[in-house]
Amino acid sequence: MEKNKKIGIIVGVLIASILVVALGVYFFYNNGMKAVGKNETVEFTVKAGDNKIEIISKLADAGIIKNKYAALIYVFTHSSKNLQAGKYSLSKNWDAKKIIDNIADGKIINPTPIVKITFVEGKRFNEYAEQIAENFNMDYDEIISKTSDENFLKELPDKYWFITDEILSDKLYYPLEGYVFPDTYEFFANASIEYIMYTMLNQMEVKLEPYKEQIENSKFSAHEYLTMASIVEKEAVKSADRKTVSQVIYKRLDQNMNLGMDVTTYYGVKKDLQEALYDVDLKDDNPYNTRNENLIGLPAGAICSPSLDSIDAVLNPSNTDYLYFVADVKTGKVYFASTFEEFLKFKNELM
Fold first, then answer.
1. Cα(351)–Cα(336) distance, integer angstroms
2. How is residue 161 annotated by DSSP?
3. Residue 173 falls within a domain, yes or no?
4. Which residue blocks in 110-192 are alpha helix, DSSP H?
5. Nearest Cα residue to 69 out of 22, 36, 28, 38
């Protein structure tokens, strides 16, 4: 009886403690979400790339919200609150909820025109840069410079799980080649190149998420998968062919063979696929040219922006014994061979 009484007292104390804590949190949250209470309107800028914690902290530091911890509770318990970049006019007479909702809804000052732009899969990064320059009144050389800036690039591995210091290699022609996802986007006409890149990288992260565990548990890095996917993108059109081209790449890598794929040579010598390749091109000693017998393994990086279909192909290759293939550029058909003799036969027939 005495024991039950003690247990009852302990339970009562615990319940009372929980209630006290809950009430404390409730009052802390509600008080922290109240307006600062000043009859003052201020301009506040959300920079592209700032995360939710950074934005809320800056609001608190500027005296626009009362308590950043209460505001963070609100933001993270409302997963749909994606805070948008732009310049805002905010009143200190508004409570934190209204301020955060205003930013989440993108109610910026003097909204600028929207530019809708489609980046086609299989294109090179420099082609995207030309497209951006034309649509956003930017300088092409400045785009290339900013997207190759070491300080900008060093921030990316901390923001994205699929990006590592591999993008800092001096062998790469364009550090973000293959990383920006080809899709249709809408940007404000005054969007910065950094914001455009972050948006395209965010989309790549979304597309790679279903493969994250497989990539992280593989002997290949995301950089290498994107490199392979970019080759597949250029070599084949149909999904089934892409999976088999992927298998050929793996087979050749396993056997320490030269990949010997023309599409890497075109990229390495900076020629379009419509141009002719000469012996000097095939022998050119650059970090992409897999036709050069000295380059065993994968090229330094991607040779274009691969589609999701090509990314899936390298992560789910077919199961065959092919070591060779010839792609008919006129029809898009790919002929696969297990022996060099078969390969030569197909090649001669297509010449």
1. 16
2. T
3. yes
4. 125-136, 140-147, 150-159
5. 28
**Residue 287, pLDDT above cutoff 80:** yes
**Which amino acid is it at 191?**
A
Residues 96 and 171 in one domain: no
Q: Rounded mean pLDDT of 157-163?
A: 95
Q: Are residues 205 and 220 in the same domain?
A: no
Q: Is 184 helix (H, G, I), strand (E, B) or coil?
A: strand
Q: Note the pLDDT of residue 319.
A: 92
The residue out of 86, 110, 134 marking a domain boundary is 110
In whole angstroms, how far apart are CA 165 and each of 175, 222, 287, 351? 10, 12, 17, 42
Q: What pTM does this model have?
A: 0.70
Mean pLDDT (the chain) is 88
* Rounded distance between C-alpha atoms, residue 94 and residue 219, angstroms: 53
Q: Is the pLDDT of residue 8 over 60?
A: no
Given 63, 81, 110, which residue is the final one in a domain? 110
